[in-house]
Amino acid sequence: MKIIHDIVDFLYPRVCVVSENNLPEDNSNNFISDSTLTNLIRPTKLQLNELRAKVKSDFAFALFDFPHKSDFEKIAHHLKYSGMKDLGVFLGEHLAGYAKLEIEEQKINYDFVIPVPLHRTKLRERGYNQSDYIAKGLSGKLYIPELCDAVIRKRYTKSQTKLNRNQREKNMQDAFSLNESYNDKLKDRNVIIVDDVITTGATVNECIKVLKSAGVNKIFTLSLAMAE
């Protein structure tokens, strides 16, 4: 079997999505070199406090900082636009280790993992929702079931990239609704919302509003990164 593995590695070498160099044989994953992963910028306590002030859930956490032209920017690009669903799963699994520590500190049992949804038009264009695959990795490691369709993006919104905070909030207003089949299932439950990147919090806050209106108890917002 090793010879088959060696042939596959020769024909389809594993490449780091950041450096574009071949990954070492003993690298822990198929996407990012271990040294690059270790050196990704982490948010400071001050930045995490700023995140928690923006996001209207009970708890919030982001694993990486996301300055412009950073290594994480390359990862985010591949995650969204290169069809690398397995990269999303791996990042969700990686995030899970840190999320578990946060959850243990909160002393709360969570019932479901819910990804921030894409509008069906954007889903059709991209072919997948990156937050869904992050949630799958997280769900598998934390043994908490994922509800990928509990929140629906009912309104198509323009890109948030060039909008300021107020414009982002207006752009996202009432963009989501609850899947009616979950009306009773979510009442008094504790849930984790998963997004890939949080900037102003406008998107996740609209999801939080929908879930709170459904009677959800505690909400923990998890993101791979927070953008500066």
Short description, anyone?
The protein has 2 domains: 39 residues, no CATH class; 187 residues, Rossmann fold.
Helix percent reads 40-55%
Sheet with the most strands, sense and barrel status: 4 strands, parallel
Taking all Cα atoms into account, the compactness measure Rg is: 18 Å
Question: How much strand content do the residues show?
Answer: 15-25%
Mean pLDDT equals 91
Biggest β-sheet: strands ordered side by side in the sheet: 1-6-5-2
Question: What is the strand and helix layout of this fold?
Answer:
Layout: H1 2-11, H2 34-39, H3 45-54, E1 59-66, H4 71-81, H5 85-106, E2 112-115, H6 120-126, H7 130-142, E3 151-153, H8 165-172, E4 176-178, E5 191-198, H9 202-213, E6 219-227
Parallel strand pairs: 1-6, 2-5, 5-6
Antiparallel strand pairs: 3-4
Describe the structure.
Mean pLDDT is 91; it is low at 1-11. This protein has 228 residues and is of the alpha/beta class. The protein is globular, with a radius of gyration of 18 Å. The protein folds into 2 domains: 1-39, no CATH class; 41-227, Rossmann fold (3-Layer(aba) Sandwich). It is built from 9 helices and 6 strands; from the N terminus they run H-H-H-E-H-H-E-H-H-E-H-E-E-H-E. The strands form 2 sheets. A 4-stranded parallel sheet has the order 1-6-5-2, sandwiched between helices. Helix 5 (85-106) packs across helix 7 (130-142). It starts with a helix and ends with a strand.
